[in-house]
Amino acid sequence: DYLYFIHPxxxxxxxxxxxxxxxxTEAFAQLLPQGTERIVTVEAMGIPLATALSLKTGIPFTIxxxxxxxxxxxxxxxxxxxxxxxxxxxxxLERGMRVVIVDDVLSTGGTLRAVLKTLKGMGVEVLxxxxxxxxxxxxxxxxxELGAEIVPLLDVFxxxxxxxx
Length: 165
Hints:
The protein is α/β, with parallel strands linked by helices. The chain has helices spanning 8-11, 18-31, 46-57, 110-121, 139-146; strands at 38-42, 61-64, 75-80, 85-90, 98-106, 125-134, 150-155, 157-159, 162-164. The protein has a single domain, classed as Rossmann fold (3-Layer(aba) Sandwich). Strands 2-1-5-6-7 form a five-stranded parallel beta sheet, with helices on both faces. A two-stranded antiparallel sheet has the order 3-4.
């Protein structure tokens, strides 16, 4: 069974307060490597994080979308997560770009695995992956498998009906 938890930063409910968004943005800004040219996020809950981080740092951001726009150079990503299989679409990134991925939660790793594989195939250098929450057990092995540094702000797990951190 896939265990969900509901939090404003992962679901937008009941709402995201400016103070929590500011706290996460400040933490992410401290973790951005020098030379980051683009912030990259996956639709949907990474968007407020990437927006706030872009405003704070002046670094533009790219949204990996759930819908194709059919633009020249668009790359398709097939993602398989703990609860679905779907396609994502990357636009606006070029070979040699140095990017940081930001997102809300790392659960099964299916989305991140597919995105990293596609970005590497495009010749995009992923400097670091920043997550608010890490639900995955075995993060060290997952990082080695992907060849990517993943930095969560908080490790969490679901125990019964409670979120433990």
